[in-house]
Automatic annotation (TrEMBL), chains A, B:
Gene3D superfamilies linked: Bacterial extracellular solute-binding protein, family 7, Periplasmic binding protein-like II
UniProt keyword list: Metal-binding, Signal
Protein's UniProt name: TRAP transporter substrate-binding protein
One of the GO BP terms on file: transmembrane transport
Classification via InterPro entries: DctP_fam (IPR018389), SBP_TakP-like (IPR026289), TRAP_DctP_sf (IPR038404)
PROSITE patterns associated with the record: PROKAR_LIPOPROTEIN
Length: 372, 372
């Protein structure tokens, strides 16, 4: 039911929409305001949000919870979004299909999970040697990225949004040192996505293991190495107890962008003010996650290095150069998949070129100057 | 009048608040919904927003306009914010006092403008060799910065928010080359704030000239150099026609944070949902400005270098090192001003130390790796 129809049906104008301020949970408030629960709860819109993270997983999972709380506050309780952890309503990797079909109205995950449905999706999550957080946000919101993302998801009845960012991730935890390209040969490493394909081309063996099983796999030597996120999440997983060497930089995920997807019909059926509330809350939440990761990563790195005596190492320059060259090949192959991937690739690489040039004299030059 | 009182007075519950969906501008919509304009416009809250920028000034001035539009949409017209350019209601640098006194309910500017009222304010705008945009946002939102900012503005009845960011600025436009520290001696440069104090300690002559007079001052040689913002704003001002050398990096303003200030009483008098709407819209707008600057700076640098053949130069390493050393002295002097400045300085520098360490192996390492 569209808002206007609803309003007309009740014949009391826009005011009707706000009665829903008193949802089920707010019955006490409503009682104080003299509104019966039954009448009040009538117009509350309930959305289900499916996520690809365990409920309240630090950073990735807490962001959708905060977003839902903000929407409830901003809408005066008229839009209630219930957040479901992975597997609660649908398995993690079925979130996309669930929102596309309308089983859930909204989802939180990362676009590279959906490369099987639309290969172009990968450009909206993480591209090896691609864009960092600031650049991803700028490309999406002011560089034409959003329009292409909309177009790519059109066939699925989904409207996508940037829904958080981890910043540059870490290259990962290794049980043995990486001194040369030779050391990548036969290396069994948990590294999904494009990064994994790059490793494979260099003779490594990328494997995909769910987060929950990572620690044991690494500790028992089932795998030789794993990437995960960054110091904050890695410390929480205790990975430093399973591998000695912590490598940087996260060449494969330089500014991993999380994603909110909304079923288009569900979005369009919201009154316009609630649409605006949802969109602005996503935008705010997008920045909030990066702010949190930046602060918590600072602290966690401190703990890892000073308390847990982690050996922090930079990947050798020739290894990084080779990873970069092979990454370009892998990304080019994705670009050649379809007209859509080609279009997204062109927009992305054009933006990346300008951005690299500008950031060399701004952000990069400042970082370098500060540490002279 | 508080929302609850208002609601009680009308005796019709939360629904009343939303009648205001039909503001004066929405009379057509309201007519369709069968609500008379007079009744409908009753509950619209009108706020005046004073800014320190000319009306619709690119980036800095367009951000508050977008913010006001978003608030109107999200509140279904219940909160109408009219944006006033500098000088329209009060002169630019009286925005702080106007919002403090309640003449206007909200303001947009930058905290370093208010150092005469509260020296600690400078830490919330730009600190030479301090934090970049990502770090400022993280310090403010997850590093204790916001609490200190609140405390610093408490006495003025103001609630401050991060309200945009320009990213790393440029060092500025120079009519002659800077080859050594000698070249700073006697240099007449428009560079306000802490950057100016640093220049002065190194024998330069900092002057303060309003933006509108910059081009002529530089072209006629009244000044030898000027900093302004970055490629996007600098290109629009045509500064490349008045000076030949464009220096980087913007050591003096590495992540200039803009500011929204709200009169505390006005904020508290809003219904809770409108408070949440205003706060989230500011947060979204904070990121939006950086996204825009990043994209437009990319493009503008391209134009400056390729079309206007601007000579892009990096300040010599020994000059940067000396600027850094003197900046530390100047910032330390600010810290010694009061208990408040000391507290903010301690929080800021502790965060900056951790952040420098973390970003050396993440953002900085990635930038360097990408350009190997």
């Amino acid at each position: 039911m569209k808002r206007r129809d609803f309003v007309t049906a009740l014949g009391i104008g826009a005011g009707a929409a706000a009665l829903s301020a008193c949802g089920k949970k707010e019955s006490e408030d409503c009682a104080q305001q003299g509104i019966g629960e039954q009448a009040a709860s009538k117009d509350v819109i309930h959305w289900k949000m499916v996520t690809t993270w365990p409920k309240n997983f630090p950073g990735l999972g807490t962001a959708p919870e905060r977003f839902a709380k903000n929407v409830a506050k901003m809408s005066n309780g008229r839009l209630q979004i219930k957040v479901h952890g992975a597997g609660e309503l649908v398995p993690a990797l079925e979130a996309f299909s669930a929102v596309s079909a309308g089983t859930a109205q909204i989802g939180h995950g990362a676009a590279y999970y959906w490369k099987g449905k639309e290969p172009a999706a990968q450009f909206f999550a993480a591209v090896p040697f691609g864009l960092n957080a600031q650049e991803m946000n700028s490309w999406i919101h002011y560089g034409g990225g959003q329009q292409l993302w909309d177009e790519a998801y059109e066939q699925f009845n989904l409207k996508p949004f940037a829904g958080g960012n981890t910043g540059v991730q870490m290259a990962g935890w290794f049980r043995k040192k990486i001194n040369s390209l030779e050391d990548l040969k036969g290396l069994k490493m948990r590294i999904p996505g494009l990064g994994g394909e790059v490793l494979k081309k260099l003779g490594g063996v990328p494997v995909n293991i769910p987060g929950g099983e990572l620690f044991t796999a690494l500790q028992t030597g089932t795998i030789d190495a794993t990437e995960w996120v960054g110091p904050y999440n890695d410390l929480a997983f205790g990975l430093y107890k399973a591998a000695k060497y912590y490598y940087y930089p996260g060449w494969h995920e330089p500014g991993t962008t999380l994603e909110v997807i909304i079923n288009k019909k569900a979005l369009q059926e919201l009154p316009e003010d609630l649409q605006a509330i949802v969109e602005q809350a996503i935008r705010a939440s997008n920045q909030d996650m990066l702010d949190e990761y930046t602060a918590r990563n600072n602290q966690a790195l401190n703990t890892l290095v000073n308390e847990h005596k982690v050996e922090l190492l930079k990947l050798p320059e020739d290894v990084l150069k080779q990873l970069h060259a092979v990454s370009n090949e892998v990304v080019q192959e994705v670009a050649n998949t379809s007209e859509m991937t080609k279009k997204v690739y062109d927009s992305f690489t054009k933006f990346a070129e300008q951005s690299r040039a500008y950031h060399m004299i701004s952000e990069q030059a400042f970082y370098e100057t500060r540490t002279l």
